[in-house]
Amino acid sequence: MYKFLDFFRDKQNRIVIFQFPNWPLILWFVFAVLDYLWSSNQPEVHHLWSMLRFGFIFTWAWLEITGGVNYFRRTLGLLVLIIAVVSSL
């Protein structure tokens, strides 16, 4: 049981599951809301905001994969990166 909790521990031995979102994740959310609200009949705007959303979520996922505080955050970054790439195809 305790080995499972090691998956969530950082270098200071604290369990970390949730962190305050960093800027790429916040900006991804902002552009997702803007895209939902204002681009229904404007394909150029939708395309621009979709590219920005992908760029921000890709950046966030890459930062989590390469610098996540524990294996949970790194795995989460990898899963989000895979989902983002597959859904953009």
What labels describe this entry?
mainly alpha; 72% helix
Topology:
Blueprint: H1 2-6, H2 23-38, H3 43-67, H4 71-88
Helix pairs in contact: 2-3, 3-4
Rounded radius of gyration (Å): 16 Å
The CA-CA distance between the termini, in Å, is 39 Å
Structural class: mainly alpha
- Tell me the helix content: over 70%
Number of strand segments: 0
Q: Provide the low-confidence segments as ranges.
A: none
Q: In this structure, how is the largest beta sheet organized?
A: none
Estimate the mean pLDDT confidence. Answer: 87
How much of the sequence lies in strands comes to: under 5%
Order of helices and strands: HHHH
Question: Quick recap of the structure?
Answer:
The protein has helices at 2-6, 23-38, 43-67, 71-88.
Explained architecture:
The chain contains 4 helices and no strands. The protein has 89 residues and is mainly α. The protein has a domain at 43-89. Helix 2 packs antiparallel against helix 3 (43-67) and helix 3 (43-67) runs antiparallel to helix 4 (71-88). The longest helix has 25 residues, at 43-67.
